[in-house]
Hints:
Elements: H1 4-10, E1 15-19, H2 22-27, H3 29-39, E2 43-47, H4 56-68, E3 73-78, H5 80-95, E4 104-105, E5 115-119, E6 131-136, E7 141-146, E8 154-155, H6 167-186, H7 192-206, H8 209-214, H9 219-239, H10 243-255, H11 259-274, H12 279-288, H13 298-315, H14 332-340, H15 354-364
Parallel strand pairs: 1-2, 1-3, 3-5, 4-7, 5-8
Antiparallel strand pairs: 6-7
Helix pairs in contact: 1-3, 4-5, 6-7, 6-9, 6-11, 7-9, 10-11, 10-14, 11-13, 11-15, 12-13, 14-15
Bound molecules: fe (ii) ion (FE2).
Amino acid sequence: MRLAGQYARNLGGSKALVVSDPGVVAAGWAQQVFASVERAGLASILYTQVTPNPRMDEAAAGAAVYAEEGCDIIIAVGGGSAMDCAKCIGLLAANGGDLRDLVGVDNVRSPMPPAICIPTTAGTSADLSQFATIVDSEIKRKLLIVSKTVVPDLSLIDPATLTTMDAFLTACTGLDALVHALEAYVSLGHSPLTDVHALEAMRLVSSNFLQSIAEPQNLEYRTNMMLGSLEAGLAFSNASLGATHAMAHSVGGLLDLPHGQCNAMFLSGVIDFNYGHAEERYRSAAIAMGLEVSGLSSSEIRKRLVAEIARLRDAAGLGGALSRCGIHRTEVHELAEITLHDPCVVTNPRRPGQRDIEVIYEEAL
Ligand SMILES: [Fe+2]
């Protein structure tokens, strides 16, 4: 946090757009970044019109401020919302036009301006991922921009920022990190390098997740969760994700629910669906999560892994059903259609059809 200004100067910046959200400003973190930028002799302006699932109009308004103020570097301080919005502001600053033209994999023409991310949650990994997620409110969909050009130039990591998260945000973001690790590990795009990070992320997150909720000021748990999130990010930014994320994006776009909460509703169903296509991988994942699997049959390991996911989810307070969030059976068909167009579904270890996804949604109702 104290080094933000120095690094902004090193990257050639003279005026920084600091992108944050009202909660992070209230916690005092944005002011620390501001002070650091000032000490380094750079000018800066704060932009905080960022909602939990950032929208295209918020990014457009931020890009207008960036241009009007003559900014030449972006510093995001916050969770996935602030960082995703900052990435989209940078993309608009560099490419102009409409973010919709950049959606999908490798459709970005010009890289964004220099960008520094300072995460204040442990889960999103937007600070090192090649993903930027933005909501198109007109069609109520989360759009994914996947491109190496949205990997920030620098991430500054300080686990102390996590101590101001409340229990629900800790739960949502921590569970997201676990899903990143699990989906990256069984992804069709996995590699020996991403495997190392994914397994270590599972180990760190599963052994510190509930503890960090129970003891929010404990820096050891917070540090381990931050490390787990980073390792999960290194894994999924390169291996990509799977059907859980594709389904969570569909619901998150429609209902404006926290991303981690959406993931929590589908992870067990997706593991059940995938299991026979990645048995050995799920066995290794179960071991990384601390489960005793020796002597168990494949079907017993599957049950134990799904039960452990459910235990973590419920203990973290994320056990609600989809119907209680306002989704009805009549919407399942359309949600499944949207899911099948999400880039994350491509690397799921088992290729799902429309009915497969509908069944997982229906089981979560
Ligand atoms: Fe995620």
